[in-house]
Amino acid sequence: MGQENRRRLLLAMCALLVAPSSALAQQSSKVWRIAYISSGAGVEQSEEFRKGMRDLGYLEGKNVLIESLFARGDFSRLPAEAADLVKRKFDVIVVSGTPAANAVKRATSTIPVVMDTVGDPVASGLVTSLARPGGNITGLSLANTDLPAKWLELARSVSPGSKIGVLANPKQQTAQWYAKSIQSVAQKLRIEVPVAYAATADEIEDAFNLLDRKDVKTVILLPTGLFFANASQIAQFAVKHRMASIATSVFDAERGVLLSYGQNYNAFSRRAAAYVDKILKGAKPRDLPIEQPTNT
Known about the structure:
Blueprint: H1 3-28, E1 32-38, H2 43-55, E2 64-70, H3 78-87, E3 92-96, H4 98-107, E4 113-118, E5 137-141, H5 147-158, E6 163-168, H6 173-188, E7 195-197, H7 204-213, E8 216-221, H8 225-229, H9 231-240, E9 244-247, H10 250-254, E10 259-260, H11 265-280
Parallel strand pairs: 1-2, 1-3, 3-4, 4-5, 6-7, 6-8, 8-9, 9-10
Helix pairs in contact: 2-11, 3-4, 5-6
């Protein structure tokens, strides 16, 4: 072998050794860009997601940047905000709340999307099935068929013999499903459970006035970003109308609602970080089954 051929062989071998090292160095220096968009005022959940990312080795400003947006119950903002996130080409978008998830789904079919606290993604048309999402969306589902019966049971125990009512957001698909489920259980128990609707913060007081006229003494607040963002005001309305209030999040109880029973949203948000981690390491959302945690 001539000197020139030996030189070429040596250069080729060096290239094979250097290329993987260069690729690894490039990968290790990658700063991932994650967007977190919430239908409500999910500041606590956003922080829990950040904690989950830190636990997995992602340090903000070093190898990840996380930007959070909160619609605070104003769903009209979501389409424009989702479109802006897609335009800015985030690596992964985390969605909290079904309205936010729907807005992002309409905005992109390519950027990976991880659901944090989202209701029933199949009924909402977000995915084809829990086991096989089939598109760019995966994550966690809040859907739990046992919860409506448990909320009704809790309400009956709080004020035995008193009338129970439900406050729901008509724009929230999951809340409407929960309302129907509660009424179905109530029908079997031969009790009437009126439902009052509020689609904006300004409509909440009118909804309480309606429940008051129907002699409701205990009100179940169905999950929606709108009620979460206005939990303190809702708690005040409940006191004003002398109603016991039952919510679905511990955060609502911290803002004055009498009782809460539901999934552990903090656990959901931390678990969402695990999905993001898998996607950043190469997994495809369509291959990651949607989970239904049972923590309450």
